Amino acid sequence: MAIFLEKEGITRRQFFKGTGMLAVATILTGVFSKIGFDVVNASDDYIAKRAAGLYSLDESMVLRKSHLNPEITQIYKDFLSPGEVKYLSPKAHHLLHTRYGKDIPGFIEELKHPHKETEGAPAAEAGHEAA
User: Fold this and answer.
1) In angstroms, rounded to a whole number, what is the distance separating the alpha carbons of residues 51 and 89?
2) Most exposed among 3, 11, 76, 94, judged by the fewest C-beta atoms under 10 Å?
3) What's the Cα-to-Cα distance from 8 to each of 13, 40, 41, rounded to whole Å?
4) Average confidence (pLDDT) over 31-49
């Protein structure tokens, strides 16, 4: 019966080489995971200290809200909504809001040709509404 016959396997030398490599890999994994945990802990500590520092700086500031800043209020009165302080004016929305992704090419064209605007809507967006 062939079931009970010993088959060719690994030699004793191959076994020790394999276990040695496995031991080295295990030790290196342990060392690197320890370093990784230390880095994560140090990063968390840094973030916590940074946040605490920012909050303490914010608490010590005289002007903590931008809409109460007299300089910002003056910019709105003089330029963004002439004669009044209207924070959601079309001009303020147009100039102060960020655009991303597919809106960028239309915004660049709008900056090149600012006279093609209609009622605060960008020229690129006005073309899409008519279509």
Assistant:
1) 34
2) 3
3) 14, 48, 50
4) 81
